[in-house]
């Protein structure tokens, strides 16, 4: 089945306030072995990141071959 990338993202985001993390870089979770499309993954990532008030800066790296990058 498909990898639950959103659960992995939530676990990472949950520890940021606990560990005092203010900036983070994330790969295109689920777009490799999980076989998910970037068009479906990116909006979910952005929604979850916006809910995290402890982060000052987030950089999201798109899958290889995709030149878009959201900050």
Q: Give the proportion of residues in helices.
A: 25-40%
The termini sit apart by: 30 Å
> Which stretches are low in confidence, meaning pLDDT under 50 for 5 or more residues running?
none
Structural class: alpha+beta
> What sort of overall outline do the alpha carbons produce when their principal axes are compared?
globular
Using DSSP, what is the number of strands?
2
Could you give the order of strands across the largest sheet? Answer: 1-2
Count of helical regions: 2
Give helix and strand order, one letter per element, not per position. Answer: HEHE
Mean residue pLDDT? 86
| Largest sheet data | 2 strands, parallel
**Percent of residues in beta strands?**
5-15%
Radius of gyration: 12 Å
Give structural attributes.
alpha+beta, 71 residues, 2 helices
Describe this structure in words.
The protein is an alpha+beta fold. Helices cover 39% and strands 11% of the residues. It has helices at 5-19, 38-50, and strands at residues 23-26, 57-60. Strands 1-2 form a two-stranded parallel ribbon. It is globular.
